[in-house]
Amino acid sequence: MAAEKPHMNLAVIGHIDHGKSTTVGRLLFETGAVPPHIIESFRKEAESKGKGSFEFAWVMDSLKEERERGITIDIAHKRFDTDKYYFTVVDCPGHRDFVKNMITGASQADAALLVVAAPDGVMEQTKEHVFLSRTLGINQLIIGVNKMDVVKYDEKRFNEVKEQLSQLLKMVGYKPDAISFIPMSSFVGDNIGKLSENTPWYKGPTVLDALNALTEPEKPTNLPMRLPPIQDVYSISGIGTVPPVGRVETGIMKKGMKVSFMPANKEGEIKSIEMHHEEIPQALPGDNVGFNVRGIGKGDIRRGDVCGPADVPPPTVAEEFIAQIVVLHHPPSALTVGYTPPVFHCHTAQIACSFVELMKKLDPRTGQVKEENPTFLKTGDAAIVKIRPTQPMVIEKVKEIPQLGRFAVRDMGSTIAAGVCMDITPKQMR
């Protein structure tokens, strides 16, 4: 039975127009998750709108606005099965406006498929997504060099793009030798499910082979339960209040369990848990679930709250926290003490925070201290800093609950920095 296979969350990342949605649509098609007649109907609709190559992309982009603009806005969750795993695809938008959704997507992923178009090679968002993947703890990466049909399956061009990517990967601490680089065309179907005659020079795995070769992540069931709901709560008459979807990050969620939501400081009892529209008695780390909570009303909790056990230890709300960050882009104003209000994206929370102290500047390669109490930080700097959220915010120490200890910092539509939480001064909530 499919449900008995191990579960993996896969983020599909990369620059806009490099073919992420088409790749996901092709994977769903190749694994039988989407029947051919659905693809055919999308193809006809795409052609009628003059967007003939978009039929696979439209499998994912079900929002009307996305179809008309031809870009991915929200994160779509779709399931497909390989021989070894069943995957939930977290399709991450590449468009600049939507990097915050990319952060939400990547922070839920066990592995990432980075799609890079052969004609373009490494672009700005390719770099940004690789940085974020590393910081958000994605250790397993597969690289698809896409649109090989456009460069006439040129091996030389594939090797050039591979070399560009290898330099980028080394910079952030990935080992290129341990990563599969696959020449592919999602539109034509080259090297997705079977090796293509168009690339006789390529002898490596297909995309599906590479997905089967991923290592199942250890499930942190021994840690306290943490689940950040990814949407606001709404009501359905006769059913009650439904936080629609969240991913169990750590611990085990069980029916009948008493839970608290922080920082809302509300308590309730888990009435039922659903996964893929089937009720289940408990949910483990990595499971994307919907759940009903007795005692929680509409408006009691919102996106950014975290569900944990009602007893010890509930999710930690920070008064202040100490973090290690890497500056990816210099902000419009200098990154100094008092730099406010960049928005911190942590699990599903998006909260403005202030830099209250720049404690140490570090050598990004060795981690050694280069300067105590620097006056400012610039692109490429690594540092230890003290942060104060402007509103109550749940964050955990990365050494204790790594899944809730990572964050990205954004300002004026750019990702300024990414980092991890080292220590917390908790806020007294009760």
Q: Please, how many helices?
A: 8
* Largest beta sheet: strand ordering: 2-3-1-4-5-6
- What is the helical fraction, as a range of percent? 10-25%
Rg over alpha carbons = 22 Å
Total DSSP E strands: 23
Structural class designation: alpha+beta
- Beta-strand portion reads 25-35%
Keywords for this structure?
430 residues; alpha+beta; six-stranded mixed sheet; six-stranded antiparallel sheet; 8 helices; 23 strands; 18% helix; globular
3D structure, described in words:
By secondary structure, the chain is of the alpha+beta class. It has helices spanning 20-30, 36-48, 57-60, 64-69, 99-106, 124-135, 155-171, 207-212; strands at 7-13, 76-81, 86-91, 111-117, 140-146, 180-183, 234-236, 240-242, 246-247, 253-254, 258-262, 266-275, 278-280, 282-283, 288-294, 306-309, 318-327, 343-346, 349-362, 369-372, 382-389, 406-411, 414-426. The strands form 5 sheets. Strands 2-3-1-4-5-6 form a 6-stranded mixed beta sheet, sandwiched between helices. Strands 9, 11, 12, 13, 15 and 16 form a 6-stranded antiparallel beta sheet that branches. A hairpin with a 2-residue loop joins β12 and β13 (278-280). The radius of gyration is 22 Å and the shape is globular. Residues 58-77 and 91-106 have low confidence and may be disordered.
